[in-house]
Write a structure and sequence with these properties.
- Strands 1-2-3-4-5-6-8-7 form an eight-stranded mixed beta sheet, sandwiched between helices.
- By secondary structure, the chain is of the alpha+beta class.
- Strand 4 and strand 5 form a beta hairpin.
- The protein contains five helices and eight strands.
Length: 190
């Protein structure tokens, strides 16, 4: 399967239907809209800094991924009659020969949609894709006050270890034993 065409229908905890799919370069406006819906706290939890908007280079980085070393999925829901990106999950392979089977994961979920299973769904789908890319472990740096993200990891069904490192909680998630999807996402630009 080519991850670029990845798509799955999902249901949130409250039964709301949604769609998870691979991000596209054409999603820049969708990410701008989603970012505009985030609180200052949500922005800080994701980017570890305050910011008012995403720059054009940031939008290019976030949407033009190679689907081999950088994979991003979006979760879309119908909002006011329009399909909107309400969450994004991504994995970025760590560099170095001893780390090639590890990827950093990060998630952004609109404030209005937090606590409904958006992050859980995105993590689950990334964990399904990881083994097909040779990824056996996810890592994440999480601010200690971001309890919602820590709970997503703790209830993921993955092997979780946490340690405090430089004022952040460093989380490692083992994908061992998880069935992976066969992927053909190697190489190429995005």
């Amino acid at each position: 399967m080519d991850i670029r065409s990845y798509e799955a229908q999902v249901r949130l905890r409250d039964g709301t239907p949604g769609r998870i799919r691979a991000i596209r370069p054409s999603d820049k406006d969708g990410l701008r809209w989603g970012f505009s819906q985030l609180s200052a706290e949500a922005i800080y939890h994701r980017f570890f800094q305050s910011k008012r908007e995403l720059s054009d280079p940031e939008l290019a980085y976030l949407t033009e991924v190679d689907f081999a070393d950088h994979v991003a999925l979006v979760l879309e829901l119908e909002v006011d009659g329009v399909m909107r990106i309400v969450g994004v999950g991504r994995l970025v392979r760590l560099q170095g020969p001893s780390r090639a089977n590890r990827a950093e994961v990060a998630f952004t979920v609109g404030d209005e949609f937090q606590g409904r299973g958006v992050g859980t769904q995105l993590l689950d789908h990334l964990a399904r894709l990881g083994p097909g890319l040779g990824i056996t472990q996810f890592e994440a740096e999480v601010l200690a006050d971001n309890r919602q993200m820590l709970e997503v990891f703790e209830h993921s069904g993955l092997a979780v270890s946490e340690r405090v490192r430089e004022g952040l909680i460093h989380v490692e998630l083992g994908l061992g034993g998880r069935p992976g999807l066969e992927t053909g996402g190697g190489g190429g630009g995005g």
